[in-house]
Write a structure and sequence with these properties.
The complex is a heterodimer. Chain A has two domains: 98 residues, no CATH class; 206 residues, MetI-like (MetI-like fold, Orthogonal Bundle), CATH 1.10.3720. Chain A is 82% helix and 0% strand. In chain A, helix 6 runs antiparallel to helix 11, helix 7 packs across helix 9 and helix 8 crosses helix 9. Chain B contains eight helices and eleven strands. Classes of the chains: A mainly alpha, B alpha/beta.
């Protein structure tokens, strides 16, 4: 019983409960006319759209593949004659990786790459465990002698890159939260302050992540001259925080400044002190707007993270994508598409988590 | 200090002193508009005695609510003075409890927490248990003993306004200000809440000033009905003493010979 409740919750959070419930009612045989329409709308249509999406993708990839292949054959024909052209054609048809056209990968290629990346991850994990076992005795000795232990310096797996990216995005989000919420509250409370800092917000809000990165780079580079801190990580998480904090800042200020006049009047009549007024009336009533801001902040943070990692050469999904692109191996393109889906799915999950928290704290049931 | 002891002499010759609770002297309110100043109230004088229940009626927009929020201290005074027990008011304060037109409960708090918000403020030296008892007592009085821990948003409009009544009485104000508190309710709920209000009031005898649009409500609840002239420059037009004995029941009031006389008086005033 308990399990089914939690399952129901999970599916509702992910947003597929309609789908599952309708499918269930199909199998339990309680299907009226209205249910049938629901079934059509919530099950058949989404499934059809998924099939259509992959179908179009497959066809598109095939067309692009053919264009590329034809170009190669024609080029061989012009430069080296018909014999070479036939050779290239045969090579392409045989599926030999040395002469495959490099273009948009098909769904099946992407799926293969996904499996490759997963196998790669297992291999690297096993390698790490083996390394740890091998160096355990030595490291214990080194620590006893006051020396730094030997750490694994091998290539990170795809999953490691995802975890690194998540770490960076949470650090950035936390930074944005710590900066934007207090400042937002302060400028929300004071009209004078609001109008005096408004220009900063309006000017810096639309600045591109790339420029933020450069700005942070200028400052952090100088500040960390004499330390061996992880510069790339610091730069990327600060940039992520600075890019994404604006939504929270603006929403917090707006929430705090637009508290229902009735509540303020009640606070005035009861003569609540400033601290009580802020914590008992103003903050709770602006919490929904603050959370809306935080939700936007998190999704912006995740979106700009990829670009920033890519530029800052900080490990993570962004640099994974960039390295694969630079790499130009046969399966590089399909690995990039895998990364694309992973980025999208994680972004979606993060948003859902925020939405759930937002719903939990929202006092207005109609929201 | 305003002299607040008033000599009252009854028809049978017995004289005694009565204490004035609330004094409005030459009250004036001016709102600046782009087309020049707009005078809402001018030369408004009203004295309300201790333990008196006064209802105020008048046409929409005549400045009733402006007057009430000035007494509450939520609106600045442009001229004249307001004093409570002879002391000029400075801004809002818990000596004047307000029941707003909208219940104005904090929606993120439970009914009990909403009442406690004021109680904590007014009785800071009481123990937590004592304060909780006060809040619970008044919630029981308004018939919400089963809803202490319900969120304000889970209560109906009428229930929310009950919490509003409990919140106002629980801070034990000197003056209770009611700004059309039942205006948003359906007539059945309104009747229920009038009964609850008058029941608590009979016990606490807190000087009350209530704005209403409802002539029957005005007569049923009040010792005096104050009629305001239409704005701009509204002032007190007429005052009607309601001499029904307390405690009153709705049935008694409706069947009383004077009821229709009072009613006619008020309606005649409003229609002219």
């Amino acid at each position: 019983m308990k399990q089914s409740i939690t399952l129901g919750k999970v599916t509702r959070i992910i947003g597929i409960s309609g789908f599952l419930e309708t499918t269930k009612s199909l199998f339990t045989g309680k299907l009226g006319k209205e249910d049938f329409r629901n079934f059509l709308r919530k099950v058949i249509v989404p499934l059809a759209s998924i099939v259509l999406f992959f179908g179009l993708w497959h066809l598109g990839a095939k067309t692009l593949f053919n264009i590329e292949a034809e170009y190669r054959i024609n080029k061989a024909l012009e430069e080296q004659g018909p014999e070479a052209a036939a050779q290239v054609e045969a090579c392409i048809a045989s599926g030999d990786i040395s002469c495959q056209p490099n273009t948009l990968p098909s769904p099946s290629q992407v799926w293969d790459s996904y499996k490759t990346l997963l196998d790669d991850h297992y291999a690297i994990s096993a390698d790490k465990v083996a390394f740890k076992e091998k160096t355990a005795a030595l490291n214990a000795q080194r620590i006893a002698n006051g020396e730094a232990p030997i750490v694994y310096t091998g290539r990170p797996s795809f999953v490691d890159q995802i975890l690194t990216s998540l770490k960076t995005v949470f650090a950035g989000f936390l930074l944005a939260f710590l900066i934007a919420v207090p400042i937002g509250i302060v400028i929300g409370l004071s009209k004078t302050l609001r109008s005096s800092v408004n220009w900063i917000i309006q000017i810096f809000k639309p600045v591109s992540p790339v420029v933020w990165l450069l700005l942070v780079f200028m400052i952090v580079k100088t500040l960390t001259k004499n330390s061996n801190a992880d510069n790339a990580f610091i730069i990327s998480f600060i940039s992520v925080g600075l890019c994404s904090m604006w939504a929270t800042l603006v929403n917090t200020a707006m929430g705090v400044s637009s508290v229902d006049k009735d509540y303020i009047n009640v606070a005035k009549v009861l003569k609540l002190g400033p601290v009580q007024k802020i914590f008992k009336v103003i903050l709770p009533s602006s919490l929904p707007l603050i959370f809306t801001g935080l939700r936007i902040t998190l999704s912006v943070a995740w979106m700009v993270l990829i670009a920033i990692e890519l530029l800052a050469q900080s490990p993570g999904l962004g640099s994974f994508v960039w390295e694969e692109f630079q790499n130009g191996a046969v399966d590089s393109n399909s690995k990039i598409i895998v990364a694309m889906f992973v980025i999208g799915l994680i972004g979606f999950l993060l948003d859902r988590i925020m939405l759930t928290i937002q719903k939990m704290i929202s006092f207005n049931k109609n929201d | 200090m305003v002299d607040r002891l008033v000599q009252v002499e009854l028809e049978n010759g017995i004289a005694y002193q009565e204490e004035a609770m609330l004094d409005l002297v030459n009250l004036k309110k001016v709102y600046p508009t782009p087309k020049g100043d707009y005078t809402v109230l001018e030369g408004l004088n009203l004295r309300i005695m201790k333990e008196e229940f006064v209802t105020i009626i008048g046409h929409s927009g005549c400045g009733k609510t402006t007057m009430l929020s000035m007494i509450a201290g939520l609106n600045n005074i442009s001229g004249g003075a307001i004093s409570v027990l002879g002391k000029h008011i400075k801004g809002p304060g818990p000596d004047r409890g307000v029941i707003f037109q909208a219940p104005s409960l904090m929606p993120w708090m439970t009914a009990l927490q909403n009442v406690m918000l004021g109680v904590n403020q007014v009785f800071p030296h009481a123990t937590k248990a004592q304060r909780t008892d006060i809040a619970k007592y008044y919630l029981q009085k308004v018939g919400l003993e089963d809803a202490f821990n319900k969120k304000a948003t889970d209560l109906s409009q009428g229930m929310q306004q009950r919490v509003g009544i409990a919140r106002a009485f629980a801070i034990k104000p000197k003056v209770l200000l009611l700004d059309e508190p039942f205006g948003m309710l359906d007539s059945l709920t309104r009747g229920e809440l009038q009964d609850i209000l008058i029941e608590i009031w009979n016990k606490e005898k807190i000087t009350a000033v209530m704005i209403t649009h409802d002539v029957d409500e005005a007569i049923f609840l009040a010792d005096r009905v104050v009629m305001m002239t239409s704005g701009p420059k509204a002032k007190i037009g007429d005052i009607l003493n309601i001499d029904f004995e307390r405690p009153r029941t709705r049935k008694e009031v409706l069947e009383h010979d004077d009821y229709y006389k009072y009613r006619k008086h008020l309606i005649d005033f409003l229609e002219h």
